[in-house]
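Q: What residues go here?
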């Protein structure tokens, strides 16, 4: 599997999920008999890539996806030629792919997205394909100019299928030394010829475990081949800055807009927040990747005029506006995803996003993240090493930020088993604006039926309403509170005794956080540590003649991963429940299989509490005349 650099920054990874065997991550439906890629690189970073591939179809489910092969290229910077392609039948017959069976189309992965680019695809459509056939292709890609002049890098991952041969060859001019990070690949001794050095790596077939739920990016722990001519990540950052810095020029119009946005504000942090808010609300995300546009931002003034751009464009406009009011900033290259470990070999491949860094405030801002409030980062950007491009230094985003949820829940149960309920939820911190924004865009019909649908999933026939909180822009940063209330006809079946779940939340709460920890029975891969901060209080009011026969015991636990408490009190005919959960691992967002093993005792205790019940006794109503 090849990591592609086109549409580099601001682009989400679009990966297909292979059909996997039950016991591991290997796709048994296809075998790669040969995958050989040869790069002949020139001193300016341009290159010619010859790519030869032969695969065999083992199962019917592979016919449709494999019988059409796609080759991606940047039409402005690259040429792609299909030299030969054919279907080989089991009896040795070859059915060639004819010129009219090679189709040119725009990059399908971005159809309908807010993106315009000159990536294209040549699709090779094989004829008469069946199980047992072999499909062959040989292509040549000519890259006319490098992303960064005089530099070359490439990244390859295993194919997650049975692979007989997977070979990478790099023919480099002397003076362009290739550094490699190659777990799972075997290097051959470099060969010298005519002032050039030829490097070769062959993939070593080995078990490929399935990717477990919640696991961090495969690049951080799996097999891969990363090659690069860069000497350091600082060199990568400075190369990017040489390309991007001119676009952040301050013009009179930018200066005037910036002064208007910060009018009345003298504190640099308040000014930065105001500019960040203005850019996120007034510059919509549209990526234009024409030529080397995947790496080169447009000018800040053009972004101000057009009111659209991608992450690089947001950053240069932010930089220009901040500079206009005396606040210096710089781009920070970051991985927007679940990768937390940089390869020892410096390359751009892990960095697919760029955000703003303000050194004087030690503050990171992402104006493309319109679902959160200014000053916060999306979860995928926390605890990340970044390249600070202006200085050529590595930085680090915050490990954590405020994300707190408070749930308040009250249920009043009648003698016939019906009930009325009130639920309120408070969002504080990073998620506040995301929920507020979701509610701003909530269809009225869905809002009106929300309570009914929510309780229907629990078997309760109910109706109710949603009371939205303050949706105004001025409320941002002050927390967001909304509520649900209504009634249910068959909340509990009385008379009894009857067991009732000791729930402390009507809507998504800490129980879902804890239950999510049980997705895997064991772990062999590093994964994203559970991080949450919940407080919940609930009250259950019962009929006058009801008796509580049993109440769950209190529980308190504290460990390096969890602080959890559950308390149950009977007061004035009510059962009051308080729960709290705070989770995380000190110093990192990445947990290990050993951490998971150490958590199991705590997880079992929390699950036991969250599945606990209280026992309610309500006597039969006396019959008339008895």
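A:
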């Amino acid at each position: 599997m090849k990591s592609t650099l086109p549409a580099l920054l601001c682009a989400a990874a679009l990966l297909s999920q292979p059909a996997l065997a039950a016991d591991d991550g290997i796709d048994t439906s296809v075998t790669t008999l040969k995958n050989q890629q040869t790069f002949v690189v020139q001193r300016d970073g341009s290159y010619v890539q010859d790519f030869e591939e032969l695969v065999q179809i083992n199962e019917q489910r592979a016919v449709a996806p494999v019988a059409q092969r796609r080759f991606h290229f940047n039409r402005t910077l690259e040429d792609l030629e299909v030299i030969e392609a054919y279907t080989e039948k089991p009896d040795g017959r070859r059915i060639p792919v004819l010129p009219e069976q090679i189709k040119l189309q725009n990059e399908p992965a971005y159809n309908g997205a807010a993106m315009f680019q000159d990536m294209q695809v040549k699709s090779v459509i094989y004829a008469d394909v069946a199980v047992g056939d072999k499909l062959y292709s040989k292509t040549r890609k000519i890259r006319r100019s490098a992303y960064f002049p005089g530099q070359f890098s490439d990244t390859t991952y295993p194919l997650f299928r049975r692979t007989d041969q997977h070979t990478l060859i790099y023919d480099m001019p002397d003076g362009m030394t290739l550094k490699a990070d190659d777990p799972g690949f075997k290097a051959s001794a470099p060969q010298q010829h005519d002032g050039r050095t030829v490097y070769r790596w062959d993939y070593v077939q080995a078990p490929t475990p399935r990717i477990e739920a919640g696991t961090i990016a495969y690049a951080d722990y799996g097999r891969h081949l990363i090659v690069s001519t860069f000497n350091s990540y600082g060199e990568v950052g400075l190369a990017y800055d040489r390309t991007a810095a001119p676009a952040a020029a301050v013009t009179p119009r930018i200066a005037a807009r910036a002064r208007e946005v910060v009018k009345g504000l003298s504190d640099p942090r308040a000014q930065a927040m105001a500019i960040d808010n203005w850019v996120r609300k007034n510059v919509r995300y549209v990526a234009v990747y024409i030529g080397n546009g995947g790496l080169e931002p447009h000018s800040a003034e053009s972004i101000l005029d057009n009111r659209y751009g991608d992450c690089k464009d947001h950053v240069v406009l932010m930089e220009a506006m901040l500079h206009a009011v005396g606040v210096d900033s710089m781009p920070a290259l970051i991985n927007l995803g679940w990768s937390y470990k940089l390869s020892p070999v410096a390359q751009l491949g892990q960095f697919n996003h760029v955000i703003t860094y303000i050194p004087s405030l030690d503050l990171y801002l992402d104006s493309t993240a319109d679902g959160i409030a200014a000053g916060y980062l999306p979860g995928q950007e926390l605890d990340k090493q970044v390249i600070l491009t202006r200085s050529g230094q590595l930085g680090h985003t915050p490990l954590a930020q405020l994300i707190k949820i408070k749930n308040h829940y009250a249920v009043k149960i009648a003698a016939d088993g019906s009930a009325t309920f009130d639920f309120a939820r408070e969002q504080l911190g990073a998620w506040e604006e995301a929920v507020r924004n979701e509610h701003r865009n909530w269809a009225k019909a869905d809002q009106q039926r929300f309570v009914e649908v929510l309780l229907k999933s629990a078997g309760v026939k109910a109706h109710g309403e949603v009371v939205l909180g303050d949706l105004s822009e001025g409320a941002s940063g002050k927390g967001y509170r909304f509520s649900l209330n209504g009634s249910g006809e068959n909340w509990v079946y009385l008379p009894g005794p009857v067991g009732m779940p000791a729930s402390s939340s009507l809507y998504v709460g800490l129980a879902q956080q804890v239950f999510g920890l049980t997705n895997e029975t064991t772990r062999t891969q590093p994964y994203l540590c559970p991080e949450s901060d919940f407080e919940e209080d609930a009250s259950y009011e019962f009929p006058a003649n009801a008796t509580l026969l049993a109440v769950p015991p209190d529980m308190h636990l504290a460990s390096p991963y969890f602080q959890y408490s559950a308390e149950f009190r009977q007061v004035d005919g009510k059962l009051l429940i308080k729960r709290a959960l705070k989770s995380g691992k000190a110093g990192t967002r990445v947990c290990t299989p050993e951490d998971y093993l150490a958590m199991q005792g705590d997880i079992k205790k929390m699950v036991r509490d969250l599945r606990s019940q209280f026992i309610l006794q309500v006597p039969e109503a006396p019959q008339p005349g008895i």
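A: Context that may help when evaluating the design: The CA atoms of residues 265 and 389 lie 28 Å apart. Confidence is low (pLDDT under 50) at residues 3-7, 12-23, 109-116.
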